Amino acid sequence: xxxxxxxxxxxxxxxxxxxxxxxxxxxxxxxxxxxxxxxxxxxxxxxxxxxxxxxxxxxxxxxxxxxxxxxxxxxxxxxxxxxxxxxxxxxxxxxxxxxxxxxxxxxxxxxxxxxxxxxxxxxxxxxxxxxxxxxxxxxxx
Length: 141
Hints:
This protein is an all-alpha fold and about 140 residues long. It has helices spanning about 5, 10-35, 35-60, 70-95, 100-115.
């Protein structure tokens, strides 16, 4: 696997797979409701969210800072890059693709944006937790 993609971690890789599946489903729905332009619009909407999320994750996973302030700064910087990239990609699609189907485009964008936020709730493999020799999950008494 590519070194950059390995840095993403299981939660982000899972969220990107969910985004790709949702984009495919919404592209199919767009094809049924609006034809070819609906399909392309849904794919572009999903890709805006997917690309910005992966770019932000790659920036956030750089291991250059060890202090809490450095980690916070890196996270804020990654989120800033994500927002700027979203704005640029939205503008680029809306200004160049004249036949965009707005409901398909923005629907796919919003759905995939929400799915990427779900990465926060996906756990890494608990057997590979660093800094712990305790079994997981902890036993209840």
